[in-house]
């Protein structure tokens, strides 16, 4: 993974001192709140219901054991002993004092971490496929480009006061595990017929109030033009994105209102001036950055095959965990492991300091010191020898980190919701907990198969509910919480926005509604191999509407 | 007019606070000063503006409360959660909100 | 009170004025004309030494035919978080190769001045008390290391093509 050089250290230390000065001026009153707010947001400091919230960047979701231990330390020393991993591969702390934030950032800087631009109207964390560098189906590792974009976008003076936030995602495989089509810029790393590396460029995707799927504006952008082209898009957005209405200020609205042909023309016109200028990416620079992401030396561990078979025979729970949470790796003796942060009935995406420390230790022992955070709020060990799966599993079980539910119905994505967030209208976490408990039985989950539930506590869609196979949107109605259900959303390479299927449900009725949907699916699926999403796409919403709102139910309502 | 209290978040640590009868910002809603008529509310708003300008608090708001069984009960769910904290077990050593208080 | 600051220090006797209903340029002063008026005047006369005020929604590229007649381009930040003028300034320097004065006017605060400098802005109309104080003390809150080339050239640094460095004032 990327390692800071002298330049990076100097920058991040300069940034910490700059922020410390800003906080000091704020606390003394020399700097007023309205001028301070965008500055603190650009350092990841939000104000929420109960306290400030600090969002620490985990660039493209990659970190090592030393960094994970620091995250545990921050949770312990400055917070309430836990952190929350987010749908953009970052971590959030919910109880820091403003006066402590400069010290927190200083400590993070010692392990090459920061909270730069995790909020504010600027370019945010560039996210990438959480299996990057390990997935068997990868064409090229997206992370070097995510790192180059991360650097280039850091304190970019022209793009620090955009109309609104800006999110970029990069994927390197045909299967899109980074949801690039619901990002402001989505980059699909690929090779052309000559084997040259480049990007398909998508612009204008996003969720929130107005979910929109990104439009492809370039089929193949050569690697060397990455920064020039991105600059062109950003400049067009900065100049023409709406600033009159916060809810119409994302680039997706600009694409929609300008029209994709005209917007593409504007971008290409600007790009023509920028192509080949000092923004051109020299091959040597790309190679140097890519070097940091060279896969670890993975020795053959062929003994793992037989060992694994033996362990699976002896322990059904372990077998289930392997089946569900371990994916094929480029190297046949290895697997990619999902460490579930969704214990049955637990808070999705939360980890205690003790759990974080354990994850760090296990990463060093079994995972070549490489950890990832997925946008589905789980921890990934991308390189684990099959021969090490059983001891890893045992250690995870001890800290409730071995739930065998990756991609299953209890692997729920939920935003913090009204329990924490000042923007929320309804709670997400208790809803997730109840659904998880109801469907917790491992056999039942396995039978239901892949089913991604995503829950947002307000229209801002931080829970990504629009791309949930089942999406839940919490709203406020007459002072009480109500949950709208959408079906058939997906954030993969066949991105679709979920369809609202009818009236919302009160909190006490939501889990029953989910059960009705699941039972309907089980009754109409062609076979166990037809997952919920595929069945929905085959039959459409009607069977589910009938089951939920059919005559009898309508009368009772 | 519904009864009102003045709430905000403390600048230095972001903790949710309410204004009490002594003009102090306290961490317990139950200790807050209740305004029962328009002049009292106007006075609360003025204090809120002043203490925001004085860099003591941020996000100042006047919120509705009812008195129920001798307890102050915010009429908005959001404010009830602010008063009591997250509504589930979330961290060792910290109690979740009282479900009876939170309930609609 | 508004003062004009450049990296060489505060400027006295600045002649440029943004005209409003109440305020008009005196004999010794010169107006910063709105874009449409500037174009009209330039088309209708041979005047040089003109000044223009670019508002956020203006297309700064329209100045191209008149650049050699402009002494100053003021770029407006009506609110400090309206970032369009960063692009205007960048285009003026990079695209149009404008060499004369580019001035930030409007909501000019100390924390944005380092960013404005990097976008090629070289003078600042400053009202904010904290900003004035910090400028008097020569204490700008910038970071020396930069991760991107910008309109204002800076020394290549840090090994990669996109990195730059300026000494902090």
Main beta sheet of chain A = 5 strands, antiparallel
Number of domains of chain A: 4
Which segments of chain B are poorly predicted (pLDDT under 50) over 5 or more consecutive residues?
Answer: none
Q: Structural class, judged by helices and strands of chain A? A: alpha+beta
Unreliable spans of chain A: none
| Beta-strand proportion of chain A | 15-25%
Number of extended strands of chain B: 5
> Biggest sheet of chain B, in brief?
5 strands, antiparallel
The percentage of residues in β strands of chain B lies in 25-35%
Rough outline of chain A: globular
Assign the CATH superfamily of the largest domain in chain A.
Sulfite Reductase Hemoprotein, domain 1
How many individual helices of chain B?
Answer: 3
Describe this structure in words.
The complex is a heterotrimer of chains A (557), B (104) and C (169). By secondary structure, chain A is α+β, with helices and mostly antiparallel strands. Chain A is built from 19 helices and 20 strands. Chain A folds into four domains: 6-110, Sulfite Reductase Hemoprotein, domain 2 (Alpha-Beta Complex); 135-291, 2-Layer Sandwich (Sulfite Reductase Hemoprotein, domain 1), CATH 3.30.413; 303-398, Sulfite Reductase Hemoprotein, domain 2 (Alpha-Beta Complex), CATH 3.90.480.20; 413-556, Sulfite Reductase Hemoprotein, domain 1, CATH 3.30.413. Chain A has helices at 6-28, 33-41, 65-78, 101-110, 143-153, 226-240, 251-258, 260-274, 283-292, 303-314, 316-325, 353-366, 389-398, 429-438, 442-448, 507-524, 532-539, 542-549, 551-556; strands at 45-47, 52-56, 62-63, 82-85, 91-93, 127-128, 168-171, 185-191, 197-203, 215-222, 326-328, 334-339, 350-352, 371-373, 379-385, 413-414, 453-456, 470-477, 480-487, 499-500. Chain A is globular, with a radius of gyration of 23 Å. Chain A starts with 5 loop residues before the first helix and ends with a helix. Chain B is of the alpha+beta class and 104 residues long. Chain B has a domain at 3-73. The mean pLDDT of chain B is 96. Chain A binds chain C through residues 5-8, 10-11, 14-15, 18, 21-22, 25, 30-31, 35, 38-39, 121, 148, 151-162, 227, 235, 238-239, 243, 273, 278-282, 285, 288-289, and chain C through 56, 80-84, 86-87, 90-91, 95, 109, 111-112, 114-116, 118-119, 130, 141-151, 157-163, 165.
């Amino acid at each position: 993974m990327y390692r800071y050089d002298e330049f990076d250290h100097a920058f991040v230390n300069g940034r910490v001192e700059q922020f410390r000065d800003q906080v000091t001026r704020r606390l003394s009153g020399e700097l007023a709140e309205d001028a301070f707010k965008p500055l603190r947001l650009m350092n990841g400091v939000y104000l929420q219901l109960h306290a400030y919230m600090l969002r620490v960047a985990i660039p493209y979701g990659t970190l090592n054991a030393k960094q994970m231990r620091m995250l545990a330390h921050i949770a312990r020393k400055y917070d309430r002993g836990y952190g929350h991993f987010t749908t953009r591969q970052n971590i959030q702390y919910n109880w820091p004092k403003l006066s402590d934030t400069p010290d927190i950032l200083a400590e993070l800087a010692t392990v090459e971490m920061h909270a730069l631009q995790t909020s504010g109207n600027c370019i945010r964390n560039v996210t990438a496929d959480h299996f990057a560098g390990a997935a068997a189906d990868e064409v090229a590792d997206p992370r070097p480009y995510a790192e180059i974009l991360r650097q280039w976008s850091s304190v970019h003076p022209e793009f620090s006061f955009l109309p609104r936030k800006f999110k970029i995602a990069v994927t390197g495989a045909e299967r899109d595990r980074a949801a690039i089509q619901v990002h402001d810029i989505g980059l699909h790393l690929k090779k052309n017929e000559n084997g040259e590396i480049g990007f398909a460029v998508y612009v204008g995707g996003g969720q929130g109030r107005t979910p929109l799927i990104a439009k492809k504006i370039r089929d193949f952008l050569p690697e060397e033009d990455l920064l020039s082209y991105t600059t062109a898009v950003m400049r067009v957005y900065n100049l023409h994105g709406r600033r009159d209405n916060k809810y119409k200020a994302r680039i997706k609205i600009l694409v929609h209102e300008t029209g994709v042909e005209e917007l593409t023309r504007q971008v290409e016109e600007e790009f023509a001036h920028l192509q080949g200028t000092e923004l051109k990416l020299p091959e040597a620079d790309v190679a140097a950055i890519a070097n940091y992401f060279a896969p670890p030396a993975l020795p053959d561990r062929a003994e793992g095959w037989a060992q694994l078979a033996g362990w699976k025979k002896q322990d059904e729970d372990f077998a289930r965990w392997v089946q569900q949470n371990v994916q094929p790796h480029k190297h046949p003796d290895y697997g990619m492991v999902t460490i579930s942060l969704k214990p049955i009935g637990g808070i999705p995406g939360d980890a205690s300091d003790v759990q974080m420390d354990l994850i760090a230790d296990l990463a060093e022992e079994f995972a070549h010191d490489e950890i990832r955070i997925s946008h589905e709020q789980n921890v990934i060990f991308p390189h684990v020898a099959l021969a090490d799966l059983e001891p890893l599993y045992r250690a995870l079980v001890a800290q409730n980190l071995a739930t065998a539910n990756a991609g299953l119905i209890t692997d729920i994505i939920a935003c913090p919701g009204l329990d924490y967030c000042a923007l929320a209208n309804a709670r997400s976490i208790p809803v997730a907990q109840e659904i998880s408990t109801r469907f917790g039985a491992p056999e039942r989950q396995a039978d239901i198969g892949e089913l991604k539930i995503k829950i947002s506590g307000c229209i801002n869609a931080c829970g990504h509910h629009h791309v949930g196979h089942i999406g839940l949107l919490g709203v406020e109605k007459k002072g009480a919480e109500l949950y709208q259900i959408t079906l058939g959303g997906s954030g993969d390479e066949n991105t679709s926005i979920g369809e609202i299927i009818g009236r919302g449900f009160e909190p006490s009725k939501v889990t029953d509604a989910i059960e009705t949907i699941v039972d309907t699916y089980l009754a109409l699926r062609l076979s166990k191999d037809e997952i919920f999403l595929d069945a929905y796409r085959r039959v459409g919403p009607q069977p589910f509407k009938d089951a939920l709102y059919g005559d009898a139910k309508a009368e009772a309502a | 007019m519904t009864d009102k209290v003045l709430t905000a978040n403390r600048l230095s640590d972001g903790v949710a606070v309410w204004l009490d009868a002594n003009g102090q910002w306290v961490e317990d809603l139950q200790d807050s000063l209740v305004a029962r008529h328009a002049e009292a509310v106007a006075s609360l708003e003025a204090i809120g503006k002043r203490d925001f300008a004085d860099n003591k608090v941020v996000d100042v708001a006047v919120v509705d409360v009812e008195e129920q069984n001798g307890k102050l009960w915010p009429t908005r769910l959001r404010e009830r959660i602010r008063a009591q904290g997250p509504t589930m077990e979330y961290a060792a050593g910290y109690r979740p909100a009282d479900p009876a208080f939170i309930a609609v | 009170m508004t003062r004009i600051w450049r990296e060489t220090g505060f400027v006295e006797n600045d002649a440029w004025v943004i005209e409003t209903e109440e305020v008009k340029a005196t004999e010794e002063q010169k107006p910063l004309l709105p874009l449409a008026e500037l174009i009209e005047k330039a088309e209708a006369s041979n005047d040089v030494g003109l000044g223009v005020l670019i508002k956020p929604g203006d297309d700064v590229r329209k100045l191209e035919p008149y650049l050699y007649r402009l002494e100053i381009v003021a770029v407006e930040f009506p609110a400090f978080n309206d970032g369009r003028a960063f692009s205007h300034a960048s285009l003026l320097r990079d695209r149009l190769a404008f060499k004369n004065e580019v001035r930030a006017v409007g909501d000019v605060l100390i924390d944005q001045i380092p960013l404005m400098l990097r976008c090629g802005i070289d003078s600042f109309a400053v009202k904010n008390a904290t900003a004035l104080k910090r400028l008097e003390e020569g204490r700008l809150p910038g970071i020396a290391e930069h991760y991107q080339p910008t309109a204002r050239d800076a020394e290549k640094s840090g090994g990669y093509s996109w990195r730059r460095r300026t000494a902090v004032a």
